[in-house]
Q: What sequence folds into this?
């Protein structure tokens, strides 16, 4: 393996300025340029057509993010690259092509060199162990932690320049990187010590980032599938984690399937099971619809039991495990969210032009990478978007964000102190869900009036 990371220094000059593309403003081009520089694209070389190289780099990057491939900095490109992402480059150096490599053995050892101060040691160790299990569940690979020596894969936290050309700066734009299989640095995972690492949806979830970086440690490059673990942007939303089929197919192409495959976890949900959580909940024409993995659960007032079926049966063009959904009754639409994308649906059809990004459609800033929950207040036409501990308010009539937002959820919805996983409206109440807990919030009194278990909707 290379003694240095994948990224090589080339094409370096601090004084070079990019030309302005016909369909992109100078600010957009500079944003793209800074992204490439952050990945170590050192702009200096002899006898190299810099514009030609940059156009190719942009084409590669756009392809990595599933954008229209133009070679120019179009309106979508800056929004995509401003999201937090893995430090392994999406844009390969000039005239260099990297092929997937793999370990020549199936039993690998790992060691943890040091820890983040933001999590207990046991939590760090558990997150890392679960991340290894993501890959051992679907391959013949086994992993064993060692203590007296360095493992094949060494996981460690670093600050700033730590000797491998992937310098950290605590800016949230580059928070971790990993090296492909091989001796020396091969397989190692580095985290930015200055970032706040968590075991929830705040900042950077250690389990999710580790699982992604270990994909690189095992030989995978980034995926173009936005639902894949190996997609370059950080998209953790604290929902139940299921490894995407794209990830499974690519890792099994290197190592083969597991001799003892794990049975799929997305079995038909039991609405009355204790602690059941949901991916999204919305109303639609008087019904309440709960979404879980690839299933939906319809609550119909005149039926004694809810109806359960696969989402594909009604909405075959929607992604699996959606993040949020709401009913825009003014235009008779359902809107579904996954990452930074929105799908608008009428009856069974996704409308033309969708999916599109939430930034251009609603006006969210580029820092918003996902929606936790959403609900439209029927009487006012105001839609509330909940993201972490804040919320935005959007006017469906003017199709614009209301000024003065975001605001703290806890300030305007007293008693709703946890992150909002799901929300919908029935009559004068918002129904807030956090995990399996439900809070009924009255919009007139601005108070919580009840907190029944979520199973109360299913006549259990």
A:
């Amino acid at each position: 393996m290379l003694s240095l990371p994948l990224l090589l220094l080339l094409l370096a000059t601090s004084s070079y300025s990019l030309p302005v593309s016909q369909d992109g403003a100078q600010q957009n081009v500079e944003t793209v340029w800074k992204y490439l520089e952050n990945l170590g694209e050192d702009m200096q070389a002899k006898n190299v057509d810099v514009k030609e190289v940059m156009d190719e780099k942009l084409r590669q990057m756009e392809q990595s993010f599933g954008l229209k491939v133009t070679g120019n900095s179009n309106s979508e490109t800056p929004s995509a690259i401003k999201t937090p992402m893995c430090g392994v480059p999406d844009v390969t150096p000039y005239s260099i092509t990297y092929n997937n490599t793999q370990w020549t053995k199936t039993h690998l050892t790992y060691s943890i060199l040091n820890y983040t101060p933001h999590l207990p040691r046991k939590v760090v160790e558990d997150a890392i162990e679960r991340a290894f299990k993501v890959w051992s569940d679907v391959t013949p690979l086994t992993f064993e932690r060692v203590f007296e020596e360095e493992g094949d894969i060494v996981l460690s936290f670093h600050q700033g320049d730590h000797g491998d050309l992937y310098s950290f700066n605590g800016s949230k734009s580059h928070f971790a990187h990993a090296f492909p299989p091989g001796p020396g640095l091969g397989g190692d995972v580095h985290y930015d010590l200055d970032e706040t690492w968590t075991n929830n949806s705040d900042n950077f979830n250690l389990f999710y980032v580790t699982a992604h970086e270990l994909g690189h440690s095992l030989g995978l490059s980034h995926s173009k599938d936005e639902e894949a673990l190996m997609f370059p942007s950080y998209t953790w939303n604290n929902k139940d984690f299921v490894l995407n089929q794209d990830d499974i197919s690519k890792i099994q192409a290197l190592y083969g399937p597991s001799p003892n495959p794990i049975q799929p976890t997305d079995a038909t949900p039991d609405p009355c099971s204790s602690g059941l959580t949901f991916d999204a909940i919305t109303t639609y024409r008087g019904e309440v619809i709960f979404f879980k993995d690839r299933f939906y659960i319809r609550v119909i007032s005149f039926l004694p039991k809810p109806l359960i079926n696969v989402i594909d049966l009604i909405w075959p063009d929607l992604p699996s495990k959606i993040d949020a959904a709401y009913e825009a009754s003014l235009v008779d639409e359902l809107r579904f969210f996954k990452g930074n994308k929105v799908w608008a649906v009428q009856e069974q059809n996704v409308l033309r032009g969708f999916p599109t990004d939430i930034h251009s459609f609603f006006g969210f800033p580029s820092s918003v990478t996902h929606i936790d929950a959403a609900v439209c207040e029927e009487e006012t036409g105001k839609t509330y978007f909940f993201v972490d501990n804040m919320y935005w308010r959007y006017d469906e009539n003017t199709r614009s964000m209301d000024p003065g937002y975001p605001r703290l959820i806890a300030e305007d919805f007293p008693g709703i102190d946890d992150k909002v996983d799901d929300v919908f409206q029935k009559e004068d109440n918002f129904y807030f869900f956090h995990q399996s807990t439900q809070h009924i919030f009255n919009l007139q009194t601005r108070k919580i009036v009840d907190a029944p278990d979520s199973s109360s909707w299913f006549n259990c």
About this structure: Residues 1-95 form one domain. The chain has three domains: 1-95, 107-255, 280-458. Helices lie at 26-38, 50-64, 76-81, 121-136, 206-217, 245-255, 358-362, 409-412. Residues 1-48, 89-99 have pLDDT under 50 and may be disordered.
